[in-house]
Amino acid sequence: MLDTPRSVRLHIAIFGKRNAGKSSLINAITNQELAVVSPVAGTTTDPVFKSMEITPIGPVTLIDTAGIDDEGELGELRVKKTKQVLAKTDLLVLTIAADSKPNQWDATVLEEAEKRCIPVIGVISKIDIAAGEEAIAWFESRKIPYSLVNSNTREGIDKLKEIIIHHSPKEFLPETIVGDLIQQNDIIILVTPVDAGAPKSRLILPQVQVLRDALDAGACVMVVREHELKAALDGLKQPPRLVVTDSQAFDFVSKVVPADVPLTSFSILFARYKGDLREFLNGIKAIDTLNAGDKVLIAEACTHFPSHEDIGRIKIPKWLEGKVGGKLDFTWVVGSDFPENLAEYKLVVHCGACMINRAEVLARLDKCKELNVPVVNYGVMIGYVTGVLNRVVKPLEK
Ligand code: SF4
Description:
Elements: E1 10-16, H1 22-30, E2 48-54, E3 58-64, H2 72-87, E4 91-97, H3 104-115, E5 120-125, H4 133-141, E6 146-148, H5 157-167, E7 187-191, H6 205-216, E8 220-224, H7 229-235, E9 242-245, H8 250-256, E10 263-265, H9 266-274, H10 277-283, H11 285-289, E11 295-300, H12 306-324, E12 329-334, E13 347-350, H13 358-370, E14 375-377, H14 378-385, H15 389-393
Helix pairs in contact: 12-14
The structure holds iron/sulfur cluster.
Iron/sulfur cluster (SF4) binds near residues 300 and 351.
């Protein structure tokens, strides 16, 4: 269970004002001393992530956030981080201490959750020191399900888990990455270039996830480097049902794989699985209207590993500037940093997003949509500039 990537777990974020008892609540839910607990308001500075299993939901990540009502310089940083957590939240637990009054900050959290269509449940904590009448009335008037909790004795935790199970979004991830495109006993080939940029002694996460998903679907999977692809194809009695390649090898692989064999890429599959393939395809039109000097944002969702250095910093700028016929003004962001002010960009080019969850990718896409900024992902963009886009999205058309 602990090996399930965080990016495919349900993310449950615990929100509330400073000293609402969020860290104690997480400890009570997980039955561990995980989060720092202190009677001093504002102990939690960075969000803390904890993995656990909640049956029957499966693997989840609990996020202990900083209080959203923080003030001052450090407080502003906490608020920024807290908002970044909202972007990856699938289910929000709003905690109000029984001895405090719900106020504007609690209402702000609700508003932010509503804007993002995140389901909210309530916790009234510290019921050993007060009855929490005002918080009860506040949640009930808003029809928010809640549990009364004493984190010290774990009273109310079972009820809270039941509410979490009942209100968790059922379809927070599509069920499969590739399984709906193949059938039992189909042969599929995964092309995984092993160049200087590949990590030593292992495959990367999207490759591993597609491999596992195809095995779960009952397919026979061959994994080859691009230079062994022809030998693999020649050795088969019948053509494979599907070839999945790294997008960077589109040009080479599309020439080796016969035109009637379906071909796609890990990044295109992830555009559908983690985000919205249609939205990325819409963004493609913007490439043709780019002019020299236009601002382009390249967003990578984790502190990237070396091969992405090459693709994000060198290859993509080169491809785009080749299309435009002049210099573009690039900005790069990595990890959780995704700018609020996107309006100045003519195009956003996003990585495959294998390390972040679907909620966060969709929040980023929503932000682009809201500001009318076209967005593509690496696979879609590389497919377009190498002239194989129609071919590589065709297997996913249904
Ligand atoms: S930069 Fe994006 S695609 Fe690359 S490893 Fe990180 S999250 Fe995955």
